[in-house]
Design goal:
Number of strands: 11
Helix content: 25-40%
Structural class: alpha/beta
Number of helices: 14
Length: about 400
């Protein structure tokens, strides 16, 4: 496998794909082979620990799951509760002394925009480089809307900007590379674009430990990968809202694949700063998926301890209402409908827009919609129920850029 093929493969992990599948055959109560955990006892208990946990997960009802029967007033209270608990689960570091403001390192003129490199210092011992693409004509006297761009699993901030990779000096022209240059696409539309690496990726990577092992050790430290990603990006978001070049009332978050979850979380935690969210991935309820795939874990860099006790990612997305929200790659229609219902509760149905993969674009192309999600299925089978066309997973500039321009009133 070439380095680019490996990068393509691992980029799927950020989308929610897990390498390999679980064993299809599990021993059932009668000694027959089953694709599900089957209790060998009359009382329904399981001597297999994972079988016990699978049953408990199946019957777990998150305390703050969205309930479509709630009233608009109830929704406001619920959303505030989700925001409070979500902030707690992110495990941000506490009692941080005042850190330096972000610092510009250099600026280079490109065709139609200036490329700037900056450094942020979110917490002690930490430096997070990022790129800013500032369209020509933007100034303190003529501020611009802005969009924070977060890449897929192994893609870099340089790839978002269409710049050469730092390790090779050449553009990384892997599959869909032209589409995935989301920061460049937004900048060409006249929107200031901020490109940021995912933790332990790109310039934030280390040859000493891969992301997975780092994520495991973070859990021992009482932190988690998503929380670190959101914290770093939140520090840049707060600075961005004060930058004189930016119209602070028009800041969006745009995440592709692994970057889609922090885009959502920032929108929920900072509604006063985030005015629009682009979720460039399929809509996935992780609890539902884990049950269907026999307790299949999401991966270390997706793990947020205690999350399932309170809500799932689709509940987080429901809590974004009424913030303008774009989904570009569909997902499980029942979960999308749940999120739509949240927007309907606050009279914001027109603020959410959903596009499916072309393969699943119309209802008649989605024959599994409305069907119960089976238990004991493979990843490939689950993705059919989720209306995912794996090979076409990419950033959608033809969807995202015009949508954001319309929301922000950009000519």
């Amino acid at each position: 496998m070439t380095s680019l093929e490996r990068r393509d493969f691992f980029s799927l992990l950020g989308m929610g794909f897990v390498a390999g599948t679980f064993p299809n055959n599990l021993r059932g109560a009668e000694g027959t082979l089953s694709r599900t955990f089957v209790s060998e006892r009359g009382d329904g208990r399981s001597s297999q620990t994972v079988g016990q946990l699978q049953s408990q997960l199946k019957h777990l009802r998150p305390k703050l799951a969205f309930d479509s029967s709630m009233t608009a007033d109830d929704f406001t209270t619920w959303r505030d509760s989700v925001r409070k608990k979500l902030l707690e689960l992110m495990c941000f570091p506490e009692n941080i002394p005042v850190q330096p403001e972000p610092k510009q390192l250099w600026a280079k003129q490109r065709h139609g925009y200036v490329l700037q490199k900056w450094e942020a210092y979110p917490e002690p011992y930490s430096v997070v480089p990022f790129l800013a693409l500032v369209p020509d004509g933007v100034s303190s006297n003529s501020p611009s809307p802005a969009v924070m761009c977060f890449p897929g699993s192994t893609h870099s901030k340089e790839s978002l900007a269409g710049e050469p990779e730092l390790d090779t000096g050449k553009p990384a022209k892997w599959k869909h590379w032209e589409s995935n240059r989301q920061a460049l696409h937004y900048a060409r539309k006249g929107i200031v674009s901020i490109a940021i690496d995912n933790p332990a990726t790109g310039e934030l990577a280390s040859p000493l430990q891969p992301r997975g092992r780092m994520s495991e050790c973070m859990l021992w430290m009482g932190r988690n990968y998503l929380g670190l990603s959101v914290f770093q990006k939140a520090c840049i978001l707060k600075w961005l809202s004060q930058w004189s070049l930016i119209d602070s009332k028009r800041i969006a978050t745009s995440g592709h694949s692994l970057g889609s979850n922090p885009a959502d979380v920032l929108g929920v935690l900072y509604p006063e700063l985030v005015s629009a969210v682009i979720h460039n991935d399929f809509v996935c309820n992780w609890q539902e998926r884990a049950i269907s795939q026999n307790f299949l874990p999401p991966g270390d860099h997706h793990t947020v301890p205690g999350l399932f006790q309170w809500f799932d990612h689709t509940d987080i997305e429901a809590a974004l209402a009424p913030c303008p929200l774009l989904f570009t790659e569909g997902g499980r229609t029942n979960q999308i409908d749940k999120i739509r219902q949240a927007y309907k509760l606050v009279d914001a149905e027109n603020q959410i827009e959903v596009h499916y993969y072309a393969k699943y674009a119309t209802p008649d192309q989605r024959p599994l919609d409305g069907k119960e999600l089976p238990v004991g299925i493979t990843s490939d089978e689950y993705l059919e129920y989720a209306n995912v066309d794996v090979g076409m997973h990419r950033f959608r500039p033809t969807r995202a850029v015009p949508w954001l321009a319309k929301v922000f009133g950009v000519e």
